[in-house]
Structures are given as C-alpha cells and as structure tokens.
Specification:
With about 120 residues, the chain is an alpha/beta fold. The chain is built from five helices and six strands, in the order E-E-E-H-E-H-E-H-H-E-H. The chain has a single domain, classed as Transcription Regulator spoIIAA (2-Layer Sandwich). About 40% of the residues lie in helices and about 35% in strands. Helix 1 runs parallel beside helix 2.
C-alpha cells in the first residue's frame, strides 16, 4: 500500500486499484488525491473508499469529480463505496451523479471490489 500525504492510500487487489481517503477531503488532501490518482495505470478499475472521511470541502469533491471524469476519458471505471454522510451531502449538493454516467455508489469496500470482479 502506498501513502500520499496523511489521508490518502492506494492499494491493489488483482486488477482493481483502491483509493482510500480518510479524515479530511479538503484543500491539501485534494492535491494528495491527484498525486495518488496519477500513480494508477490507465485501463484500471478504481474503487474509491470514502468511509473514513469526516470533513470535506467543495474543492476536495471537485478534485474527486475531475479525476473520475478524466479517468472515464481514459476508459477507466470507477465506483464509490462507504460514502460518509459529509461526502453524500456534497455529492447531492454538487449534483455529481449528473456529470458522471453510470457511477455506482456501493455500501462497502467488499461490494466495490465485487462490482469489478
């Protein structure tokens, strides 16, 4: 598992990359999230685990959205899992699901991995 800053990890399970975000998805973490995403190879399936996020900002969520849109242009597949209440509020407020066709939000990491298996 690779760590990026204090709040971002990237792990792999078979052909699936798992980006874990904890604590704060804000200004500084957004840059770490971008760096972590840039380490993932094109053509991969990516699960983003938001279960440990306690605080989020529009910049953090905007970075997440831009990564998903950019990845889809590279034919990467994404799903979100363990979406915490703070993240869900911002996802709804920003209408993120309207910008990303077919983005799945799943209850837990196991379902996220199974989604791509």
């Amino acid at each position: 598992m690779q760590e990026f800053g204090e709040n971002i990890t990237v792990a792999k399970q078979d052909e699936i990359s798992i980006i874990g975000i904890s604590n704060n998805l804000g200004y500084e973490t957004a840059d770490d999230l971008r760096e972590a995403y840039n380490q993932i190879e094109v053509g991969k399936k990516i699960v983003i685990d938001l279960g440990q996020v306690t605080i989020t900002t529009s910049r953090g969520m905007a970075t997440l959205l831009s990564i998903i849109i950019e990845g889809e242009e590279k034919e990467q597949e994404f799903c979100l899992c363990n979406v915490s209440e703070p993240c869900l509020v911002i996802i709804d407020a920003m209408n993120i699901l309207e910008y990303v066709e077919g983005l799945e939000i799943l209850d837990n990491l196991e379902e996220g991995i199974a989604h791509f298996s």
